[in-house]
Design a protein that fits this description.
With 294 residues, the chain is of the alpha/beta class. The chain has 9 helices and 13 strands. The chain is elongated and about 70 Å long.
């Protein structure tokens, strides 16, 4: 059993196509198909069910591919560690970001990182803090910026606090409340709300604040993108609660202080279990970009 065969099996399980898997592995399709058949003969079971148009992973294949992926990752990590020991950092880096990240300029940090380590490939994902916490623990994400209610206790990851901030209300420039300098959540009870999807940490922050204030509201629009939320506000479709540094002044919308608005903590989080050289190097860049203040 060869490492390259394991790579082929992982690629085929993810692509579900011999053609796409071969393109991804930079081999001809016939060679990849031959190696998969040889692998199946060696392990003694069918790893993939296939027809001329369809490929699926068998139950045995699911178990095999999980172990094969771990073996490939370990081999890649070993190679990256060896190169790093020789003075050059290679490999990959997976970064997660919440859509309301405000305390670190990730593009600027990546520019510095590229200048220092041009051989590292980087994948960027925007999503929810809960998903990134799971993916840091599983090794799918190396480092992430999170935003969580201040009552949340982080476990299972290493982290440092970047900032604490209170949300503001965001309204259209011609909204009836636009000239107010300060509001209570009770002032927004009858306003249609725009918020993150139900079940996300971003939504939990505002839901918890309204619940604590004893105020009911109607969320009429859900959006994961901060840019889309601000556009919906600008069109007069509702009111949103957002961290103040996410507001785009060129839209002309108004932000208003809230006496009892939700507070959130922004974190930098990572796993301390066998971090890759690329992950350690990027953390060094981030430490310079966002010095410890808390």
């Amino acid at each position: 059993m060869e490492l390259q065969q394991l790579r082929y099996a992982v690629a085929l399980s993810e692509e579900r196509s011999f053609t796409r898997a071969a393109e991804r592995c930079f081999v001809v399709q016939s060679s990849l198909s031959h190696q998969i058949k040889a692998l199946e003969r060696e392990v003694g079971v069918d790893l993939f069910a296939r027809t001329s148009r369809r490929v699926e992973v068998t139950a045995a294949g699911e178990a095999f591919v999980a172990a094969a992926r771990a073996a490939v990752d370990a081999a890649d990590r070993a190679a990256a560690d060896a190169v790093a020991a020789a003075g050059e950092i290679r490999g990959s880096l997976a970064i997660g970001m919440i859509p309301t990240a405000t305390r670190i300029d990730i593009p600027a940090a990546l520019r510095e990182f590229r200048d220092l380590h041009p051989s590292v490939s980087v994948s960027l994902r925007v999503g929810g803090s809960d998903v990134f916490l799971s993916e840091i623990a599983s090794g799918a994400v190396d480092i992430a910026i999170l935003g969580l209610p201040e009552s949340t206790m982080l476990t299972g990851v290493a982290f440092r606090e970047l900032a604490r901030e209170r949300h503001v209300a965001v309204v259209a420039p011609d909204h009836r409340l636009a000239r107010r300098r300060r509001l209570d959540l009770a002032d927004l009870a009858d306003e249609p709300a725009i918020d993150f999807p139900r079940g996300t940490p971003g939504r939990a922050q505002s839901d918890g604040a309204f619940r604590a204030a004893g105020v009911q509201r109607s969320v009429m629009y859900e959006a994961m993108s901060t840019g889309l939320t601000l556009e919906l506000v600008r069109q007069g479709l509702g009111v949103a609660l957002l961290p103040p540094n996410t507001i785009r002044s060129e839209l002309g919308i108004r932000e208003i202080q809230l006496t009892d608005g939700p507070a959130r903590v922004e974190y930098l989080a990572w796993s301390e279990f066998n971090p890759s050289p690329a992950a350690r190097a990027f953390r060094s860049v981030l430490d310079r970009a966002a010095p410890r203040t808390v």
